[in-house]
């Protein structure tokens, strides 16, 4: 009987390939790890120990010379680190160290309305408009009925990381006045203030991987089609949906966390864990 292949030393990179054996089954076969992948690991360690968030990396020629690799290999490693959210390439600036990922908590902690004292979302504007049909169905409003659509944003270390559309039926905020806060951020705060008068029964979260549409891509400073995390939150009062939040997060800047805490937390240090 063939013995399974083993990693014969700590210095041998743990890599695999699939090969057919003589009886048609498959086994793991050791192959060399790509050089750029090894370099990515070394660079990642250097980012943790030598650089701070926002710091500009040396140019490609200097980095390639330092690590003794071809510039093509270096570019592959840098591209991989950018995909993982460790680096950020900015036109006219260069390659900088990205902030730590933002923790998106989907825990079972206390339920709260948007706009509370610990809510870090920034109000953008609010308008009355007909929502998408799928949203109208969740809100149980007529498909031609206008609702309040609140736009908010999240920023971390000076860069946009999330955008939110909050749909609120007019029946959820019947006392809202258009005189005191006709538009803009003031209107957002007025809508959320009225919403908080309701007794929140529960909130339900769902998350899925998606791709950025034109509007989200522009707001999040990404290309259309870039990967995003879409977190949908349904706020329930009296068994009915009182509000629906659709928040779009940059997938390269966020991680999902599961626990007892609620809300979203941003952690400034790379060693701290999101919760």
From TrEMBL:
Q: Which GO terms describe its molecular function?
A: DNA binding; DNA-binding transcription factor activity
Give the source species. Answer: Streptomyces violarus
What Gene3D superfamilies does the record tag this protein with?
Chorismate lyase-like, Winged helix-like DNA-binding domain superfamily/Winged helix DNA-binding domain
Map out region (Disordered) in residue numbers: 1-29
Listed InterPro entries? Bact_HTH_transcr_reg, Chorismate_lyase_/UTRA_dom_sf, Tscrpt_reg_HTH_GntR, UTRA, WH-like_DNA-bd_sf, WH_DNA-bd_sf
Enumerate the UniProt keywords alphabetically.
DNA-binding, Transcription, Transcription regulation
Domain of life, per UniProt, equals: Bacteria
GO biological process terms held by the UniProt record: negative regulation of DNA-templated transcription
**Annotated signal peptide:** none
Q: Where is the HTH gntR-type domain?
A: 33-100
CDD domains in the record:
WHTH_GntR
**What is this protein's name?**
DNA-binding GntR family transcriptional regulator
């Amino acid at each position: 009987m063939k013995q399974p292949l083993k990693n014969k030393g700590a210095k041998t990179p743990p890599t695999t390939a699939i090969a057919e054996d003589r009886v048609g089954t498959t086994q793991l076969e050791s192959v060399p790890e790509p050089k750029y992948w090894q370099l990515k690991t070394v660079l990642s360690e250097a980012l943790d120990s030598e650089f701070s968030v926002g710091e500009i990396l040396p140019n490609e020629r200097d980095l390639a010379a330092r690590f003794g690799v071809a510039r093509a290999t270096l570019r592959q490693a840098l591209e991989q680190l950018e995909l993982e959210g460790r680096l950020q390439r900015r036109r006219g600036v260069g390659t900088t160290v990205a902030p730590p990922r933002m923790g998106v908590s989907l825990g079972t902690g206390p339920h709260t309305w948007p706009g509370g004292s610990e809510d870090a979302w920034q109000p953008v504007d609010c308008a009355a408009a007909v929502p998408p049909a799928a949203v109208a169905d969740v809100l149980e409003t007529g498909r031609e009925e206008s609702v309040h659509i609140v736009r908010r944003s999240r920023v971390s270390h000076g860069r946009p990381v999330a955008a939110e559309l909050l749909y609120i039926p007019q029946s959820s905020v019947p006392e809202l006045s258009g005189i005191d806060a006709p538009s803009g951020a003031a209107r957002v705060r007025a809508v959320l203030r009225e919403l908080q008068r309701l007794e929140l029964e529960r909130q339900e979260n769902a998350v899925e991987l998606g791709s950025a549409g034109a509007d989200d891509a522009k707001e999040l400073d990404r290309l259309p089609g870039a990967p995003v995390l879409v977190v949908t939150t349904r706020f329930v009062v009296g068994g009915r949906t009182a509000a629906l939040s659709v928040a779009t997060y940059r997938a390269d800047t966020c991680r999902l966390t599961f626990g007892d805490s609620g809300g979203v937390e941003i952690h400034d240090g790379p060693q701290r864990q999101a919760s």
